[in-house]
Amino acid sequence: MNDITSRLPLSVFLITKNCGEWLDAVLTAVRGVAEIIVVDSGSTDDTLTIARQHGARIITQPFLGYGQQKQVALDACTQPWVLNLDGDEVLDDTLRTAMFDLVRADDPAVIGGEVKFRDWFIGVPANKRTRAITRVRLWRRGAGRFLAEQIVHESVQLDAGRVVRLPGWVEHYGVESVGLRVDKINRYSSLRAELDANRGKSPSALKLFLIFPLRFWRNYLLRRAFLDGRRGLIQSMASAYYAFLIEAKKFEAAERARLKLESSSQSPQSSQGGL
Fold first, then answer.
1. How far apart are CA 31 and CA 93, in angstroms?
2. If you average pLDDT over residues 183-198, what whole number do you get?
3. Is the entire prediction scored with pTM above 0.90?
4. I need a labelling partner for 107 at 20 to 30 A (CA). Which of 15, 225, 230, 248 fits?
5. Which residues pair with 26 in a beta bridge?
6. 234-266 b/e with 16+ CB inside 10 Å = b?
């Protein structure tokens, strides 16, 4: 397996910053691939040491937003197939086997593979009977791209073609504790509010009032988070709070801009006099 020609013709690419807690497990789960690309935006832990131990090619890149950062990593890939993972996402054995089989088969009718995600929270994975989030993370290189304006919640934009649903799970550890969840909520809500503002989406008083209960019940009942007991309750409340914060931050930005404009219009104007 040391010979590059015997390895799976797949590039695994990640963007990282201080992912040392999970990165060894992430990269161990994809051992045997031809290429690993890591684009790092300033890790101060052992992320880069672990990446080097797994033979990754490391690119240092100040953070550009999630869409652009992932496109930098994608552009560096050289293999016929590409797999995007985050530094806190580990393939289980079933999914790894299914992905590798799909790449080996190289069916010309198939352009990509869609995978299911399962969050770990306070030491326990989500119940498999909850409604899982699914995303395309495996595709033919050249058939997908990320958009620069996707500063958060980025997803690959694929050409037309058949995408197959793969069995197994991506085990997601990045929101494993309440503290991690809260930090991510604050960071991502700011980015999402900025993205909405850039798209011309104004704050809505009705949405500010309704978004919390609607998002909570969607997750707790429709996505069946109640199956996870108190963990599911906390996760559903956190998801609702995230949605609420986006609207609150959009309102704050609009109000500050309005107050600044009013202050500017009410400020004394310079006068000119003459003899």
1. 12
2. 92
3. no
4. 15
5. none
6. bbbbbbbbbbbbbbbbbbebeeeeeeeeeeeee
